[in-house]
Design a protein that fits this description.
Helices cover about 55% and strands about 5% of the residues. By secondary structure, the chain is mainly alpha-helical.
């Protein structure tokens, strides 16, 4: 989000930290890994951020995401921007990994689901099983001392 979601100067301080970290990873030939869940999380958060901005701008705080916003020209344009960002930026530099749904250990996922939302529990499980380092600003992940995390 901090690298590729430029709307409303989305947390510029964290953008700078993420950008510096990103440059270091790439300069050291490190891998940036994404899967469909990560792309989904990015896409949904980006669109929800724009929805919240749209509600403020239209002075419609009770607007419904699906009924009032989703089919507007703005939402359509934002989804197009998201698709372009994913295709032309994120997927150009990231390694695409399968989600391995068939191999997920749901006992571990539902154990983590006690303190994380479901998607985060899957991300946590994937990081543990594949020995990946998670880069996130989500403080929920700090509840686990077996996860290597870089906080932005």
């Amino acid at each position: 989000m901090f690298l590729y979601c430029p709307i409303a100067q989305y947390n510029e301080a964290k953008q700078n930290v993420a950008s510096t970290l990103f440059e270091k990873i790439l300069s050291r030939n490190g891998s940036i890994i994404v899967n469909s869940l990560i792309v989904s999380e990015f896409s949904n958060a980006y669109l929800r951020l724009d929805f919240n901005l749209w509600k403020e701008e239209t002075k419609n705080p009770l607007a419904n995401f699906k009924n009032d916003y989703f089919s507007t020209k703005r939402a359509i344009d934002t989804r197009s921007d998201i698709a372009n960002t994913v295709n032309n930026k994120i997927l150009k530099i990231a390694e695409k990994h399968p989600d391995s749904f068939n191999a997920l250990n749901f006992n571990n996922i539902f154990s983590a689901y006690k303190v994380l939302d479901y998607n985060d529990a899957i991300i946590y499980n994937e990081c543990i099983n594949k020995n990946w380092i998670l880069v996130s600003d989500d403080s929920d992940f700090t509840k686990f001392d077996d996860l290597t995390i870089i906080r932005i």
